[in-house]
Predict the 3D structure of the following.
Amino acid sequence: MSQTLKAVRGTRDLLPPETELWNRIEATARSVFARYHFGEIRTPIFEDTGLFARGVGAETDIVSKEMYTWEDRARAQSEKPQSLTLRPENTAGVVRAYIEHKLGESGQLQKLYYIGPQFRRERPQKGRYRQFFQIGAEVIGPQSSGSESPLRDAEVLEMLATLLDELGITGWTLQINSVGSSADRERYNAALREALIPVKEKMCADCQRRAELNPLRVLDCKVPEDQPIIETLPKIVDSLDQESKDHFAAVITALDAAGVPYTRNHRLVRGLDYYTRTTFEFTHGGLGAQNALLGGGRYDGLSENIGGPKAPGIGFAMGLDRLVLTLQAQEADQKSASPQGIDGYIAPMGNAKDAEKLAAINAAGLALARELRRAGLRIELGEGSFRLKKSFEAADKCARRIVILGEDELASGILTVKDFSTSVQTKVPRAELAEFLRN
RNA sequence: GCGGCUAUAGUUCAGCGGCAGAACGCCUGACUGUGGCUCAGGAUGUCGUGGGUUCGAUCCCCACUAGCCGCCCCA
């Protein structure tokens, strides 16, 4: 059906009951964030293209080939059209807002979280979409607010461990590394390039290319034959200055004290230019090639890069789509507890041939449903023209109990209620119905 | 952006160069106020889209689109 309009490639509709899981994850995240004193920020879905070019880095894959960018109409004839971009990530937008609203002037540490869609024009596959959803948070502020303290790094990591645990995600791994200051990284890049010259001939084709273009990425290589060679390459930790070393050591000490399990991975490098010092990923098996549930790190120079004051920070972004996939896989393993269903299904019984009586019984059904829903119950309302058998079938699929509302019940004010799990049928006075259904 | 696999009923999937199939789900009835179990009956559909080969294509070929897997990269 080529004429039929479909969701565009890499985007999708989320339907019930799946959306229930999405909401549960979001609610859990909000509740954890609140306990750590984070407030929600909502930034625009599109921004000036320059924000991402300068913030994320013009040479990154994200900026150089994955952004949805277009030219807005010029506001006046003399003006040049503005280049706008659908946000590929949210950290740059949050820092832009931090600068724009002078949040640093409060002198206080800012702890902000966001939940929302991001857009990257990549080839879609499992766990990777062109519109995808991230839950993220940033801790940012002037140096005097303690934003540069390794304690903040450790606290964010400890919070993430708590959040994943509360979500019920089992078997996650925290991998952590330090990429040092931007000067450290430049030094390391040069050292790595140097060290690769004599050995790259023996490595895989991808690595030979990476050795030229982006030596850091060689460390990510998964080809088994290359591993011994990679182990002989210089480690980034040897390029760190004393300050960065001390910072990383303090993060580790705090994680140990809090009992957060982690794996130090001196080969963990991340693709965004703004990361400095601490970088980390929480990974999970069963996500295929996209094994990262979330990633993040420190970005001490980002604010200045986009024209703001010095404002060190640390943050992360977690893939909501990937959390959902992971939890769905886990629930499938546990054969998923069957859903309880709503509290009641009201089955009005009318005569399909008598329009007046049918309308009356349906109206009575709505009045009863209103009463029960206002009492906080989850109620579905049937249709008076259905045969009772049909009402039962419909009710059995979605509700724990059926409430029969026939002419007898309407006249007497005593409803007939049947519980599907016990098959027990009970007569309940209308005044006691809400309480009865609540149990 | 590159490579591999796939596309048939609401869903999961068989199938074959010559009438379109199963299971589950759905609808109706047995049962005019009683579901789940059972029994009887019924409807599933432009066989992803467009083109080509052929007397004839759901099947073979090509292109496109989409999904999955891998690469790149990332959440």
About this structure: The first strand of chain A starts at residue 39 and ends at 40. Chain A is about 40% helix and 20% strand.
